[in-house]
């Protein structure tokens, strides 16, 4: 299902036809091209398309595969944003979803305006990517630390070998907040505010999960972190020498 949309392509993976059609209608009214998928298999075909979706709204209970397994499979090879939409509302389910790599989590029943707002927020944080490249002569904002390069405008992180590090939208936002506040201890609430993730469904454990995910990707020894340190009872601090990118 598509429309004359300008907001981007969003896959709606939901086996309940009424819920699926409702979400599709909400997205289309909001200017998005909504792609309905009734199963994990249908999503797999869509992901192999020449023009795959830019965001996935994913139900956890699918007829052919568990939604968490689907999210984990997608995240192993892609940084496409994922919003989980499910009837499971426990903190355990949310934490597991975040650990796998989801960018946001909504519980049914949901407010249509809130769903649309979250889709827009996740895509906005993801950035325009290759659709609107920054001219080469434009100065880029960003930082270098321990050989890594964090490009804020391009929303990219490269490791000391120049290899891109795949980060989800939330992981990038958290790393940027930590690096920009280097040397200063930030509480979980402060980090949520800096990430613009403050809402009723976000909880402190969100930050803890994202910190673990970041450490696995950029720390030499995630169990003994060198530069994303925990200050017990206070929060987290980025403890490394940081230099601006050329021209920033």
TrEMBL record:
Residues 140-240 bind DNA. Residues 140-240 form the OmpR/PhoB-type domain. The modification 4-aspartylphosphate is found at residue 59. One of its GO terms (biological process) is regulation of DNA-templated transcription. Keywords: Activator, Cytoplasm, DNA-binding, Phosphoprotein, Transcription, Transcription regulation, Two-component regulatory system. Residues 9-123 form the Response regulatory domain. Gene3D superfamilies: 3.40.50.2300, 6.10.250.690, Winged helix-like DNA-binding domain superfamily/Winged helix DNA-binding domain. It is found in: Cytoplasm. This is Regulatory protein VirG. It comes from Stappia sediminis. The lineage of its organism: Bacteria, Pseudomonadati, Pseudomonadota, Alphaproteobacteria, Hyphomicrobiales.
